[in-house]
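Reading is simple: the token line describes the chain's fold. The lines below illustrate.

. . .
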Amino acid sequence: MTENKMPMRKIISFMHLSLDGFVAGLDGEMDWIKVDQEIFEYVGKRISEGDTALYGRLTYQMMENYWPTAADKPTASKHDIEHSNWYNKVHKVVLSKTMTDTGLTNATIISDNLSDRINEIKQGAGKDILLFGSPTATHSLIEQNLIDGYWLFVNPIILGRGIPLFVDIKDKIQLKLLNTRQFAIGVTELNYIVDRQ
């Protein structure tokens, strides 16, 4: 009798990207990223289906400074309310060597044994895990072949320099294109899955 195995959860890296492959300027600036209501609604629909978010420490702290109470502000937009509500209920996984779980709400800190800990999470029950921004965390996960897909929003800009999405890639990563979408604001979505065959 064969055992019914759950399909392994996937880690999908969600990034805004310049045409020349940067995810932020040299000082981490992201003021070049274009977003509008069309993108908010499209991304919000996909994100709302997820139950786990993965962050590096800096991105997590940035999110924690805004999203838990964003819906409570009198000027909160529809997007702010929806994303705040989602953020408060989703489980957060944070890659950090300096943070501890003490006092955190609905969050798990991974500080060592990255591959083993991530694979434990991937084998658990739930939906795909979305890795938001977090270039340093992304680089660590790429290095250990733990990312299963790339959900990229290519912005119509060439930065020339900055923080790249891909650095020191040792082995080729074969990708399969799932879909693309062009937004009126000029951003192009590219949705890839890693082809491990």
Observations:
- DSSP finds five helices and ten strands in the chain.
- The chain has a mean pLDDT of 90.
- The radius of gyration is 17 Å.
